[in-house]
Amino acid sequence: MLRLGVVVLLLLVTSGAVYASAGRSSQPAPVRHTCGLTDRQFLANYQVQLAAVGMYGDDFLHGSAKPQEVIGAAKDAARAMHSSAPFDPALLTVRRYAPGMFLEFGRAVKARAAGKNPGPAMYRSYLLGARVNEVLTAAQPGLKAVGCDVTDLL
After folding, report:
1. Closest CA to 107 of 95, 97, 96, 117
2. Total-model pTM
3. In 10 A of CB 88, how many CB atoms?
């Protein structure tokens, strides 16, 4: 009986502490952007990968590139993004979403080449790309202030 009383007392104290702290959220800390060598390298690499995959994608749509070339470029771009190591928090978010964006684009090309509906994969690629764009747009002033201009990526 004593154990049950102790457990009930602990539950009451814990729930009281939770209710007392409810509604008192701390202000989020301001994001501190960085623009070190790895951040600059990441941005340059991301720009190159976007251009490469875009070029292969356009060539595929115009009939001058094979689907395997586009899929290979998308996989290479995803691998390059995944293996990079930026320090900036916004660029870390981009690093998390960019590989999926490239891979979904590759899946869309593969589906189209197989005569299937590329829409779902292209939609996912577009959503991931839109998220990357939102992150970069929000981070643009802070990144520019520390020396990393992302205007060309928007």
Report:
1. 117
2. 0.78
3. 24
Residue type (1 letter), 33: H
State the SS3 of 98-118: HHHHHHHHHHHHHHHHCCCCC
CA-based nearest residue to 86, from 123, 45, 50:
45
- CA torsion sign for 9, 13, 14, 18 is positive
User: For residue 113, what pLDDT is reported?
Assistant: 92
Report the alpha-carbon angle 43-45-51, nearest 5.
Answer: 105
Residue 59 has what pLDDT?
A: 93
Reported as type and span, the H/E element at residue 38 is helix 37-61
List, run by run, the mean pLDDT of 10-residue segments along the chain (154 residues). Answer: 53 55 62 89 95 94 92 96 93 95 96 94 96 95 92 85
Paired tokens of 110: 């593969």
Give burial (CB, 10 Å; 0-12/13-18/19+) of 37: exposed
| The pLDDT value given to residue 74 | 96
